[in-house]
Amino acid sequence: MCVQDIDIDPEASLCQPIKEGKWSVIQIVGHLYYWDKFNLEQMIPYMDEGVDLPEFPDQDQHNQKLSLKDFSVTA
C-alpha cells in the first residue's frame, strides 16, 4: 500500500503535526527514509564479518542536513 492509495485528504492528514510541537506523518516518514538511505549507502556496502564499520554520524548534525520540506505527499 502506498500513501497515494489511502483514501484521505493528504494535506489535512499527512502534513499536519501529529500533536502540537511534533512532526507531521510525512516528516516522520521522510526522516526515516533519510536515515535508511544513509545506512544503505554508507553502512551496508561495508558490512562483512570482522570488519569495522564507518563511524556513525552525529545524529543532531545528520538530522540538520535533512530538509523536511523536501518531502511531499504527491512526490
Task: Summarize the amount of helix as a percent range.
Answer: 40-55%
The counted number of beta strands is: 0
Oligomer category: single chain
Describe the main β-sheet briefly. none
Q: Report the β-strand fraction as a percent range.
A: under 5%
Give the termini distance in whole angstroms: 16 Å
Detail the poorly predicted runs. none
Find the structural class using helix and strand composition: mainly alpha
From the spread of the alpha carbons, the general shape counts as elongated
Number of alpha- plus pi-helical segments = 3
Radius of gyration: 16 Å
Average predicted confidence as pLDDT:
80
What is the N-to-C succession of helices and strands? HHH
Features of this protein?
single chain, 75 residues, mainly alpha, 41% helix, 0% strand, elongated
Textual characterization of the structure:
By secondary structure, the protein is an all-alpha fold. 41% of the residues lie in helices and 0% in strands.
Write the topology of this structure.
Layout: H1 10-14, H2 25-43, H3 59-65
